[in-house]
Amino acid sequence: MRLYSWNVNGWRAVTRHGLREWVAATPMDVLCVQETKVQLAQLDPDEAQLPGFHSLWAEAERPGYSGVATFFRDPCTAVRAQLGRADFDAEGRVVVTDCGDFDLYNVYFPNGKKDAQRLAFKLDFYAFFLEQVTALVRRGRSVIFCGDVNTAHTPLDLARPEANRRVSGFLPEERAWLDRWREAGFIDSFRHFHPEERRYSWWSLRSGARERDVGWRLDYFWVHESLLPRLKGAGIATEVRGADHCPVWLELD
């Protein structure tokens, strides 16, 4: 089973830049996209679909902002398009699908760079999200979550850690939440297979950052340890263009 996650920075833009062709040429069972920046009412039915996939969208109330969508093949089924708290769900940040022996959360975690209020919102989201998924695990359900986490976990996960220690996305209080995910039994799948590799999934659109590979690893698949025997591989598809992020992938037995 092959799963992909991609912050596309605009559904309409990325479909104009080859997303459909890439999906058609790439074996995959699930595609999770973040920052769709569109509401379904703005799209023709064909624009909102990928051939051969079912889909579930979460829309932000604010037009042109946030939004996630999951495209999935059988046997995965749609569960819900919200996390369960009104202020978070108004921003269209979560889609949940049932993939048989695990629930898959497609999440666009908040960005905290704007101001202190948005940083607090981001940290609150991290806390509430962890409560939700650990409650599922306690009930015996395995969980995988993926998406743009908007935080680089360790100095290996960005090109210039020293220059960014006081920047949202690499603050100690943000990184501590990723530590808590590990303590709760979730595995950073990329690091599981590539413990020392410097690879990035986002680059600023300014100053040729992607060409110089001055990036951040902000996009992840976190897999609960109960699914460890099924892990086959994980990686970053840096060759795929079309947005400021590139896709990341996970392979399961």
Number of domains: 1
- Distance between the terminal alpha carbons, to the nearest Å? 6 Å
Task: Return the string of H and E elements.
Answer: EHHEEEEHEEHEHEHEHEEEE
Fraction in beta strands: 25-35%
EC number: 3.1.11.2
GO molecular function: DNA binding; DNA-(apurinic or apyrimidinic site) endonuclease activity; double-stranded DNA 3'-5' DNA exonuclease activity; metal ion binding; phosphoric diester hydrolase activity
Cofactor: Mg(2+); Mn(2+)
Keywords: Hydrolase, Magnesium, Manganese, Metal-binding
Overview features:
253 residues; 24% helix; alpha+beta; DNA-(apurinic or apyrimidinic site) endonuclease activity; 14 strands; single chain; metal-binding
If you had to describe this structure to a student in words, what would you say it looks like?
The protein has helices at 11-16, 19-25, 86-89, 116-138, 172-183, 189-193, 209-212; strands at 2-7, 30-34, 54-58, 68-72, 77-80, 94-98, 103-108, 143-148, 186-188, 202-203, 215-216, 219-224, 231-236, 248-252. The model has no long low-confidence stretch (mean pLDDT 98). By secondary structure, the protein is α+β, with helices and mostly antiparallel strands. It comes from Acidithiobacillus caldus (strain ATCC 51756 / DSM 8584 / KU). Mg(2+) binds at residues 7, 35, 148, 150, 244-245.
